[in-house]
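Sanity check

After download, print the first record. It should look like this:
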Amino acid sequence: MESHAVPMKMMGDTHWIEADRNTFAAAWTAEVAEVPEFSNSTIHIVAGLLLPIWKRLPNESTRVYRLQTDDGERIVGRKVSPAWAANATASDAVTLAPADAFMALMDGRTILDLAEGLQLRRVRVMGADRVELSGFTDTMRERLTAYGLFHEIISWKLRMFVPTDANGPAVLERVLSRYPVQRIGEREAA
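Expected structure tokens:
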């Protein structure tokens, strides 16, 4: 869904090295063998008659997508963040499936305010993206660790994180079952 172009004169400043056709073909074949045929991802689209509500849609992206489902249905709409979609469809209670919440947090633009003053957001710690839980008390720490969160002391402060590997959604599900989402917020674009 994206492509990038780099001017030829900038290639000398990168880690790329020149290779003959046979060397490149062998490396390409080895690389392609490791790449899965396709990958799944979820995007949220607002579709239908958009002009009357255009100003109410988020300003994060004004790109219009034209899609076709496997059943042949054609959809034209604007991509919106999972947080915006959840807030737009929520009634009194904010509902967000744990897998969707995990994906939204990993995307980096979503902040989840939970019950009892807790908050989840993506942070960059030691060069890696992590999902941090803030606002916890000392009495909550043992329970949160039992749910699967891990903690580290960074700059003399105890911080708790949701794993960002395959266990992340399951850990997040346990946290959200005890501390439900109260509000879904979005970070401002940098």
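If your output differs, re-run the checksum step. Summary of this record's structure: The beta strands are 44-47, 64-68, 74-80, 110-114, 119-125, 128-134, 150-154, 157-162, 181-186.
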